[in-house]
Amino acid sequence: MNADQPDYKDTLHLPRTDFPMRAGLPQREPEILARWAEIDLWGKLRADSKGREKYILHDGPPYANGHLHIGHALNKILKDIINRSRQMTGYDAPYVPGWDCHGLPIEWKIEERYREKGQDKDAVPIVEFRRECREFADHWIGVQREEFKRLGVLGDWDNPYLTMNYEAEAVIADELGKFLMSGALFRGARPVWWSAVEKTALAEAEAEYMEHKSTTIWVRFPVVKAADPALEGASVVIWTTTPWTIPGNRAVACHEDFDYAVIEVTEVAEKTGATVGERLVVARNLVAATCEQAGIAAHEIVATLPGARIAGSTCAHPWRGVEGAGGHYDFDVPVLSAEFVTDDAGTGFVHIAPGHGADDWHLGRANGIEIPETVGEDGCFHDFVPLMDGAAVITQEGKDGPANGTAIREIAKAGKLLAKGSLRHQYPHSWRSKAPLIFRNTAQWFISMETNDLRAKALQAIEKTDFYPKAGQRRLYSMIESRPDWCVSRQRAWGVPIPVFVHKETGEPLRDQAVVDRIVAAFREEGADAWFTSDPSRFLGNDYDSGAYEQVRDVVDVWFDSGSTHAFTLEARADQQWPASLYLEGSDQHRGWFHSSLLESCGTRGRAPYDAVLTHGFVMAEDGRKMSKSLGNVVVPQEVNDKYGAEILRLWVVSEDYSGDLRIGEAMLKQLTDYYRRFRNTLRWLLGNLAHFDPAKRVDPKDMPELERWVLSRLSAMDGVVRAGIEGYDFNRIFRELHEFCAVDLSAFYFDVRKDSLYCDAPDDADRLAALSVLDTVFDCLTAWLAPILSFTTEEAWLARTGAADDNSVHLRQMPEIPAGWRDEALEAKWATVRRARRVVLAALERKRNEKAIRANLDAAPVVHASPAIQGALATVDFADVCITSDIVISDADAPDDAFRLDDVEDVAVAFARAEGEKCQRCWKVLPDVGAGPDAPDVCGRCAEAVKHMPAAAE
């Protein structure tokens, strides 16, 4: 190039933007958060959407007792994506975050402090203890609030709901009062999951199933009254994994449809609990397994009979008549028929201890059998239980106590132990102390599932609720269908008290609405502490003698707390609405929050507090194992924020199918940064080229070339995907389709094809202006579609284009309305054919580049041999521009044998040919007309004309 010739680079319309390629998310995201706070984005959203139809995603409250884990991040980010999506599709979606503040998790933390100091928690005044619990919860609410906000979660953080707020405690008491007044709340003795360490009942949802080694025993129950002559002189054999429950035995169960065998022992091994000549009764198909376990070398089946002929017999307790029992176990043990008996393990007989199992309790109640109380709140046998007095089932350290060994020893001394073994199985443990739980009969407060048809109402409500995924409906339905009465009392200090008085003589709870109202009013004014600081007469008034009533000191189950959030949030707040549009939590909440909210609402309002329920899975390490500190595979949200940025976590949430379990780890995070980079680079390329866009020169779609109209058609299709995904909560599909659109349709195709026109054509060239008009529309759509997911990046890109005015934010926008006429499926089909042919050309040229025959595609002018169908599609297309070659020839002649082909594109073959002419120093095409213009001797005619219109730099 001569010195007086122009620098053609300065005549190109090259991309120009301040939007950086490197995101710097850990630094940039806090700046954007600060801006949202400064401009009061939340307040602007509420003002802008006033009067719109509400969309209410009611927040399931996390516990305020520690830093957030990755499951919290998944949950809150998914909620935020949904709320932002609904806000941008025409709804008013005010998200009110909440916290669960009462209960064992927080109380346990305070007790740990006392244990570390050697202090006795029970010696501390209860109000002082509750104050410490409240302060602990308040501290962690503040911590978690900032951690949630750092994830980009938008909500009314200044006004969350808290179950420990006075108003909330008052409403919880009022809701419980409704069950009291309707007769559904009652006190009764039932076996419930019990933590001996924490000395409280636990809900099923609070039990974690962990591997546990249990001792198994086979025990003889001698038949003393036979319903069938074949049973005379025989012993029914039971099998159990809980030997300590034998003192509580009051019956034996069989299945009336099973076949049972009476066997006579004819030979025994050296070490055995069996005796030659004795007769034993077991299920027919469990005879072999029982004999092997008991060391019975040979036996004879002397009779077979169905369970229906065994039921009605009477057995003796294994400890009948034993020395030291004082006749305590000399009662009859009836054999009853029960559907829950199985014959896949054990003996086909179940020993029934009504105080230690739900099935046992129901069977005992149905047959008028005594429900004994044998074990105290500390997990030790009461001193009035002969042979077992004082023996601990579970120690205060959460270990197995001596009760099992004591029971087995006494059974063996009585000559009733046939065999002993062990079993590793999943057994319930406390989610707090991690100690094994026991089923223990104890007096508790229950909400009846039958009174006022609560079960029927709940099942009907489930059928009317939409579930995502659908399987959640069947799961919750089966739980409600078979669940026992709801135990709502806990023997703890930190919670809403059960605001009930019980008459000391009759044992009946006082049902008086005026009393309930006085309690609720006191809680509203002073909080639930009023229950412990006030004289009972304050609540009972002048109508009742406080000396005649016992004030209940238990607190209500925290699941009742959280199950009541709809009452003091959705109903009580002007910005909310009842019922909620959606409840969204992990799949474990079918037995937790979804469950308790359903029962509470159906019991007081007759329907569910939600129209739809969405569940996500649990988060696993990327190798599929459970996360644990010992394995070093725990992903901490705060660390991801500091290293990669919260945007990567937000992308992770939608990149996985969250209806099942999700995985995350370092390798996945790095892959996610590649996905993120694709989206960011797409936005950056759009911004760079749109620096040259003049809105006054926008081209009408009907005047655009086919390629631009194809992009508009693709935008229309994507709009349908996005809106359907929002409606069906399928954000994984939105992510996949948008990523494919950006990576394949735009970056690898449209942007690649149109670079030449955008950079090199004259400023007012019709094709260039059409392309710029399309880029403007693409930017408008992408920033909106991605805004709920990549909330920081789209905000940064939007402000880079439109300015940082206080009233400007991508999140104040609505999803663009795409004209219906843009969709052209015939055009999309045509361009699918064009792209299929292009793929063959690009592959052929790649081979030539690898062979060093050419340096770039623009060095080539290949001959494309194509079928008539392909030629028809290419007839109106500048295929050289599409393939980014300097020229191209479409031929209907037979392709030479050495032409390039792809196996999956049979009707296209490419013969290589070099382009003729010289290389244009501006667009780099090799063309015959390079140098034809005297004013621009080293550029092509197109570029020479373009330079005339821009003698200085590109505008």
Structural commentary:
The protein is of the alpha/beta class and 955 residues long. The chain is built from 28 helices and 32 strands. The chain folds into 4 domains: 39-184 and 448-498 and 554-615, HUPs (Rossmann fold, 3-Layer(aba) Sandwich), CATH 3.40.50; 208-429, Isoleucyl-tRNA Synthetase, domain 2; 670-826, Orthogonal Bundle (Isoleucyl-tRNA Synthetase, Domain 1), CATH 1.10.730.20; 827-916, Class I aminoacyl-tRNA synthetases (RS) (hypothetical protein PF0899 fold, 2-Layer Sandwich), CATH 3.30.2320. The longest helix is centred in the last third of the chain and has 30 residues, at 731-760. The radius of gyration is 38 Å and the shape is elongated. It comes from Marivibrio halodurans. Zn(2+) binds at residues 920, 923, 940, 943. A motif ('KMSKS' region) lies at residues 626-630. One of its GO terms (cellular component) is cytosol.
